[in-house]
Amino acid sequence: MLDDARSLWELIERRAAATPDARMAVDEDGRTLTFDEYRLACERAAAALAPRGIGEGTPVSWLLPTWLESLVLVGSLARLGAVQNPMLPIYREREVGFITGQTRARLLVVPGEWKGVDYEALARRATTGQEGPEILVADRKLPEADPSTLAPAPAPATPEEAPVRWVFYTSGTTADPKGARHTDRTVQHSAIAMSLALALGPGDRSALVFPFTHIGGSAGCSRPS
Length: 225
Prior knowledge:
Shape: globular
CATH topology of the domain at 1-144: Rossmann fold
CATH class of the domain at 1-144: Alpha Beta
Strand content: 15-25%
Number of strands: 10
Number of helices: 7
Mean pLDDT: 91
């Protein structure tokens, strides 16, 4: 168990160092990522996002299906120390506009068209009148750049000093959406508790039954075992 990692990015680095060639994820099309491939993909995406002004504490909203690229986006934002705001793909203009306005998102990442919905058009309608965010369309592909250009990854001095890195919202069925703030550590402890409850070990494989933008999905990236 790498349960003393101070941040999600530290966990990613330590897992890649410990088991670089072990398979981390496989999707419905048979595409796979090892832990080291994942780390490298995250760094390449982070290097492309940094020139857009994404860094420590920058609020970034993203609404993507459960794709490998969604996992990579999470890791790239963790590498930069951004504050992540995942949104479920069932959200529409009301929820997206309210959430990006309240979080003051600097960047909003969406697919182009998925399951008959034009998410780029939805995002532009939802953010009309806001000062931001920049809209990045990512259809199973994220921008990439040279990782050597990256500054050192931010990290708290101790796990107890971990800053807020996540904001998860309800859909606001009966009122406006409400956001819950989390650190990497609080998400990680949820993942650790689930691993212990299910007695998961290194040889086990689990299906991602939650939408990845749900906290139950994002916690899958934070499981140390």
